[in-house]
Amino acid sequence: MADAVYVGFDLGTTNSSAAVFDGERALSVPSAFGGLLTPSVVRFNAKGTAIVGSRARRFLDRDPDNTRGEFKRLMGTGSRLSFPAADLTRTPVELAALVLEVLRADVEQQVGFAPEQAVVTVPALFEVPQSAATADAARRAGLERVELLQEPVASALAAGWQADSSPGAWLVYDLGGGTFDVSLLESREGLLRIVGHHGDNFLGGRDIDRVLVDWMLERLAESEGVSLSRREPRHRGALRLMTLAAEEAKIELTRAEATSIGGGLELELDDDLIELDLSLDRDTLESLAAPLIARSLALCHELLAQHGRDANDLERVVLVGGPSVMPSVRRQVEEELAPIAGGSLDPMTLVSQGAAIYGASAGLAARTPAKTMTSGGPAASGDGASPSTDTAAKVHRLWLQFPAVTGVSTPFIIGRVTDSGGPRLTSVEVEREAGGTSWSAASWKAEVDAEGAFVVQVELQPRALNRFRLAGRDASGRRLVVHPGAIRIMHGVSLQDPPLSRTLGVALANGRVQTYFERGVPLPARRTFTHRTVEGLGAGTEDRLEIPIVQGEFERADLCRLVGSLQIDAGALAQTLPAGSEIDVTLELDRGGHLSASARVQRTDQVFEQVAHLLVPRADTETLTRSATALNQRLLELHTLLGSAVETAVSTALATLDSRLIDAQLAIEAAQGGDDDAGQRAARLLLEIDAEIDTLEELGAWPELESDARLWLASALGFVSLHGQESEKQLLENAGRGLERAIASRSHALLRQHLKVIRRIGTAARFRNPAAWDSELDRLAADADRATDPRAAQAAVTAGRAARQAGDLERLKRCVRELWTLLPATAEQRLLSHSSGIH
Amino acid sequence: MTRWITENPFFVLELPVDCRAVDIERQGQKLLGMLELELAAAASYPTPCGPQPRTDEGVRHAMAELREPRRRLVHELWAGAAVPPPESEADSASGWPEAFTATGWLRSS
Questions:
Q1: Are A50 and A43 in contact (CB under 8 A)?
Q2: Closest to A582 in 3D by CA, of A606, A613, A551, A556
Q3: Percent helix, strand and coil across chain A, each rounded to 5?
Q4: pTM of structure
Q5: ipTM of the modeled complex
Q6: Hey, are the CB atoms on A727 and B37 less than 8 Å from each other?
Q7: Residue A704: what pLDDT?
Q8: DSSP per residue over A554-597, as a string?
Q9: Are A756 and A711 in contact (CB under 8 A)?
Q10: Are A80 and A120 in contact (CB under 8 A)?
Q11: What separation, in Å, do the N-terminal and C-terminal C-alpha atoms of chain B show?
Q12: C-alpha angle with apex A725: A719 to A727, nearest 5 degrees?
């Protein structure tokens, strides 16, 4: 009887690792070279043979053109990385698949078989295309089924598993090679709750290397009079060597107080050779890295503030990732946040261990259920019990559901008899085995109902692996053999469904976003909304209807990232669609954040699916430069507008924006030199700067905003007092109090949030009054000539007036709703909506 | 607005409004298991607006809603605001008295 094992992979930017969970302990899997980490580096030699991991890493400085690392940062983009010696190119997905293949082989070496199912981790702030690319890489590596898990959730789970069960709030501070994630968690009654995430997809150890390289460039300019530029493709080789030297020095300075960089390394520069030999002490490194560490800590404080907490509420902080071992990081985290958890937690392997533990709670045994056991379903995992040694006896097969890992001490085991014939099973006995001398056996009994089902609640020994034996009885009390005859449940921590880390929605023609899934929604999730086409779509023509899918926390579509697009080609339509035709759009996310989308055209009953083009948009440097120039202009105007306000918070925000814009401009320069990753970083920075400038511009208009908000509240109170329900009154009262708090703290985000609720409640109450539909019809009738289909709009106005005359309220409502869908969106709005063709 | 009642997590999970966090996990896990096994007992749940079909997605969503303290408060409010109809209607509204008993707003006799 072989116990099930669960496998987790941490596909990191710099290093990757694998771990195996046997139901009790999570163990890291050593690589073929003995270490617990496999560098995420791939090299192709002239014969086209791939070399992966430690052996490839050695070639990063010797043969950088044919050796690639950090491709994780390009996952989900359309980039192809070239390997000139073998004259081939590979996508980041293909390279990631090679790393996973090696890890899978290491696991096979450890457990005796190649895992078919596993959990692979992704950064919490990965967007849909990046997650999809990771899942694709796992499948290419030979995994039949894969679940993606957010890295901070994995580390939290591993830390929660190993830590004592003391309740309280804690942070997982994960500073990886390329990304920074922070998660706020809460453990209570054995349950681990992810309260929220925050982070920066482009802040990591590599950025510390970058500032260190900048420092080296300054020293070289002083001592050698040479000038290297990231914008120059011919300097890329020298810069790569300097980056490697910087990384080594950074690691060395976690142990030593001072070190040398380069040690005489020769850099080739414009046909000259320059010797790199610089001294660096820990203080200098810490002062160079300080702004980056400060940014990470600021994100931690923001996360806490978003959830109404501060550092005093924290019990502990779990550190994850290589750069988090830097002494200055540890010191500042302890000073600003909370004590660092458990010395035995290894920041480098915690993520893969958590992924393996998660595999157990998700029922994702490394071997497919058919090969290990007969019970099925995601919660049905445990021992692969053989049916019986008594072959003469009739074996009743059970389909069981129970948690393999749970923080609930009295969970349910639910079962159903899946066969018939022989003596009827009337009851099932579940016996918990004694745990040596620690605890005695116990048993429970449940009746099997007419459906052949039973539900039994058992009690677990805390923080231990509990083994249960199952047996059946017939009506006469005779013992019957059942399969599976044994299961096991580990009492540990329960993890909720993974939450979505970025809000996902569809861009509408008016430049706004229809949210499908809010950040924090548990996955999997599925949602359908009905939209209407803005314009007509002629069957058989070359027209195309775009339904852009966006991800981000903004109401404005242009501030969110375009992560895919559903397209309806008019050529495929069975008949012409007039403006205002209804389209049911469904978005679906699985547990790992993998998106599928479909659009159903109601009029023709045609379904357009799997047409989401999941790709992170390519960062074209000309557009980036134009965008940076425009933002710079807006920032200058903001300085003029708000300069005299001199509130500390405002001037700090302006200074931060100035420095981030410089960062973005530097990244654009590097992108011009051929660094795709820098292009992605610049694109994201510019989006963030745009959103922050928006917020500050609103600050300039704060008095009007506040007065508008009060007006909305007063109107809503009026409507609700006349037409609202009791519960609406209470909700409005809460929202009103929230609004006052937002005004007092001058928080735009909070104000918008409460205003949204107030508008919704007020509008719902207003339209309960039939007179509201009358006045809405008149308002819309005045704009009917500007509708996308004026004839249809005029017809709706006429029909609405007739309905009003006839006192037919339902018909009047239908006409008003139709007019809403025919309202025009301006050309400017369409541009900002990623060319959306729907309302 | 009726969705606040028909999809109220306390109704979906058939739990009283004063239930503990651990009750939510245990009950959610039990219902998910029953749904996976396609047991009739889990197929629907009683609400003031009559029985509603129960799905695994709805159960997971309900669990997530009740784990978040502020959202839980709103659902407590709505579950409480759902005033029972007059007795004669209650008799005809299948599943209605059970909903209130399950969620703790009515005492079972």
A1: yes
A2: A606
A3: 40, 25, 30
A4: 0.72
A5: 0.80
A6: no
A7: 74
A8: -SBGGGSEEEEEEEEEGGG-SS-B-TT-EEEEEEEE-TT--EEE
A9: no
A10: no
A11: 30
A12: 115
The string of pLDDT tens digits covering residues A38-80 is 999 999 999 999 999 999 998 987 888 899 998 998 888 878 8
Q: Are strands A442-447 and A314-320 parallel, antiparallel or unpaired?
A: unpaired
Q: Any residues with CB less than 8 A from the CB of A655 and at least 6 apart, and which?
A: none
In 3D space, the residue among B31, B60, B34 whose CA is nearest the CA of residue A498 turns out to be: B60
With residues binned 3-state (H G I as helix, E B as strand, rest as coil), the percentages for chain B, rounded to 5, are: 60, 5, 35
CA distance A522 to chain B (A): 6
Q: Which tens digit of pLDDT belongs to each residue from B23-69? A: 999 999 999 999 999 999 999 999 988 899 999 889 988 998 898 88
Residues of chain A positioned with their CB less than 8 A from the CB of B57 = 524-526
Within 8 A of A190 by CB-CB distance, chain B residues are 22
Amino acid (1-letter code) at residue A435: G
Distance, in angstroms, between A697 CA and closest chain B CA?
31
> 3-class DSSP state for residue A56?
helix
Nearest to A260 by CA among A240, A245, A244: A245
Task: Give B-chain residues touching A399 at CB under 8 angstroms.
Answer: 37
Q: Which residues in chain A touch residue B30, judged by CB atoms under 8 angstroms apart?
A: 411-412, 414, 455
Residue of B nearest to A761 (CA): B1
Q: Which residue has the tokens 């959202």?
A: B71
Q: Is the peptide bond before A123 cis (omega within 30 degrees of 0)?
A: no
> A776: which 2 tokens?
């809405």
Cβ atoms < 10 Å from Cβ of A584: 14
Contact B61 A522 (CB under 8 A): yes
Mutation target to probe the B interface, by most B beta carbons within 10 A, among A187, A496, A754, A761 is A496
